[in-house]
Amino acid sequence: MGGGGEDFGALLRQLRLNVFLTLEGLAEASGVSVRGIGDLERGRRAAPQRRTVAALADGLRLDAEQRDRLLAAARAGRVDQPTPVSVRTFPRDVDDFVGRRGELVSLTTLAAGLKGGGAGTTAPSSSGPGPVVMIVSGSPGMGKTALVLHAAQELAKSFPDGQMMLDLRGMDESPPSPAELMLGVLKAFHVADSDLMKAGPHGHAALYQDLLADRRCLLIFDNARDEAQVRQLLPARGRAMVLVTSRRVLTGLRNVHRIGLGELAPDEAIAFLAGMIGEERAARESSALSQVARQCGYLPLALRMAGSWLATRTGWSVQRLADRLAVDGRRLEALVAGDRKVSVAFDLSYQQLTPDAARLFRRLSLVPGPDAGSACAAQLLGQDLPSAEDILDELVETGLLGTHGDRFRLHDLLRLYAGGRLATEEGPERVEQLRTDLYRWLLETTIVAGRWFEPDHGAPPVDWHGLVDLSSADLARQWLQSQGINWLAALGAMADAGEHALVVEVAESLHWFSDQWIFWGHWTEVFSLAARSAQALGDDVLRATQLNYHAWTLIVCEGSPEDSLPVAREALSAAERGKDSRQQAWAYYYLGWAQRVREFHEEAAEYYSRAIPLFASVGDLHGSLQARHGFAHNLLLQGEGAAALHAFQRILTFLDESGELIEPYIAETSRIGVTSGMGRSLGLLDQWDEAVAYVRDAVSLSDGLGNLPVKSLHLLHLGDVLLSAGRADEAREAFRTCLALGGDADPHVLADAHRRLDRLDDAT
Fold first, then answer.
1. In this structure, what DSSP letter does residue 157 have?
2. Distance from C-alpha of 273 to C-alpha of 267, rounded to nearest angstrom
3. Quick check: pTM over 0.85?
4. Which residues touch 624 (CB under 8 Å, ≥6 apart)?
5. Crossing angle, helix 374-381 and helix 428-451, to 10 degrees?
6. Which of 375, 390, 360, 363 lies closest to 483 in space, CA to CA?
7. Tens digit of pLDDT for each residue in 471-523?
8. Residues 587 and 631: beta-carbon distance below 8 Å
9. How far is CA 329 from CA 144, 325, 333, 613, in A?
């Protein structure tokens, strides 16, 4: 006790004994319970509020001086008395808590009375003094309770008037009502029974609010069911801090702070497991431990069960558990610790879903990629977009579905759980039909989106009414890129299922678009699948076409020109069997391109020379343009400046004469390449000012094209020309501008720019 005031309990006992009253006698005279008076006298209860002191003074029949003395002791006790044990109802903190640094900072900042939170919080719009309420939400097993308990151990010292934790049992069929919970708080803080009886059930809310208004308390309401259960429990005034955990987001609560918990970071998850099994064992099997953490989806509950399994099987290797968890169908069964199962935590949330939400949750497990959009949900449900969006909102609100922008994502373990529910509740035949329908829808939408970029197609046909808005090329590009992993998986599955015509149609619809998303990383897979499907269809021309696309991916996307040679030769053979001169020409073109990159310039010139007349014979202007460009580029790389300049000038004439017959995008790309090529050719002729001017023009033209790989290439060329012209500072700026384009640029070009910058820096 500090501050020099009298001890309230000792004074109360002295005053009671002075008038020869027993505890029972004072209880009867004052209306304060026997237990309450006894706890006060023994110091087991914090000093009471003014109304309780007044009741005791009346029961003791104190004079004015004695009454003031008792009130003064009560006030001193409320300020100085340490928190009584009977009001501190926190369970023991978990000893192996790791991570959540940003969230802990947010909580301690709020407890210190600062406005706003840290990373991961959304602060209420209102400002000014008053209670602080933090909602901690997240999927089952994310460690919400562990976080608030760990934080509470540090925060408790800031709340000397009491710390309580109540389990709201939100997952129970009949969770406690707000009235029951408020009564529990009132009794825990030893509000006199007579006060409770006097107020009656309808007055308990006012007593509850008055109690919290007068105390600096830390309250944890764990496992809240919904807003209705929590709303009346939140203090309206005072300096209390309330932490609410819930699987639901509780979006209906206003003027609260929020933390949405996700999975642990990989290094945190590994540290969590290491703490459970011992650092020495963890270090010895670090690779296997990393596998276990990943297979647990970095979910704290799953990690705890995996760690418990390992901690009780010290003679078993970590790899043994990693191997068990690697089997998707057995993973949830393996994540068990005694009578605790990860799947049981998921069951509780699943059972609270509406039928439509449960159906969508199950069916989202069919989405092959990590996330999906609302159109995909509508397809799975067979409903319109607004209905699907409402059901998605329910899944997000219940914590079973995460969001990333306008995309929706199931946690890996929830996906496995949903897949098990799907198989059980809808049966294997229905599941297979749903999967086939989803994949077919993905691919049909991909075809429509991809056709936007073909010269003879463009916008979807007027009679097409799809779930995805593809009314512009930008929307089509956005859908193709955001759904890439999903439609790629569907393409592979349909190839395996023998849907070869569909596979070829998808690839054909995408070959123009592929030039605008060159470094996606999966075009080789797309066109090799299509080539195999074309072979299964027995169509040599289709096969030659897809093999030529495949050869392009190996040269440009993969940077493996040598690997493209056998593919292009196979394309040539198929085209010859099919007597198709156009595909023969394209095969020669890709053979020439590969040999040019490999610096076999004579062979490259030979192949280009064969391609050019073949393209002309079939009237393929696009092929003729690209073959001419390849031939000119080959001369440039051979150091034939004058011949290359002449060849590039002839290409400009060809472009001008062809006019609108050349697809605009190809015409613009070619003009940029030719302009840059002319500049580089002039450089070989030591005409440096003109050379720099031409390549700068090419870079400027690239800005209008919107193709970062193309722009990065010509920035690299500009830097090279400037460097050769002796303008090192300008060259350095060109290389830096190239690197600033980032991940959407050509990675090979970026690597070259980085090496050139390093050499420049070393030279200075």
1. G
2. 10
3. no
4. 612, 615, 616, 654
5. 140
6. 375
7. 999 999 999 999 999 999 999 999 999 999 999 999 999 999 998 899 899 99
8. no
9. 27, 9, 8, 58
